[in-house]
Specification:
By secondary structure, the chain is an all-beta fold. The chain is built from no helices and eleven strands.
Length: 122
């Protein structure tokens, strides 16, 4: 499956953004999807995951209560709604897909989008 992430941008602290991860292919509902982020000089870190049906979600403690992951399998798209953004949320955000269920580890994902930059100013 091929992925394309979009929706990043520059926002002030406390603001909101919605990222989208659009997938090609007719079997998107067979893939669990995860959002990860990578800040300059840091490793890629887990943000949120969603199961194939959308019934199961998991969040990093740093974003719990502020970010919401969702998916629309009819549109082959996964979303990440980000509210109450903080400067420490600044990073390139990537979506990944895997056919074997959710995982918190980026190395477990088979396909990646190109990333979208989120910058939160203080």
């Amino acid at each position: 499956v091929q992925l394309q992430a979009s929706g990043g941008g520059l926002v002030h602290a406390g603001g909101s953004l919605r990222l989208s991860c659009a997938a090609s292919g007719r079997t998107f509902s067979s893939y669990a999807v995860g959002w990860f982020r990578q800040a300059p000089g840091k490793e890629r870190e887990f943000v949120a995951t969603i199961s194939r049906s959308g019934a199961g979600t998991t969040y990093a403690d740093s974003v719990k209560g502020r970010f919401t992951i969702s998916r629309d399998n009819t549109k082959n798209t996964v979303y990440l709604q980000m509210n109450s953004l903080k400067p420490e949320d600044t990073a390139v955000y990537y979506c990944g897909a895997r056919s074997s269920g959710v995982s918190l580890y980026p190395g477990a994902y088979d396909s990646w989008g190109q990333g979208t930059l989120v910058t939160v100013s203080s």
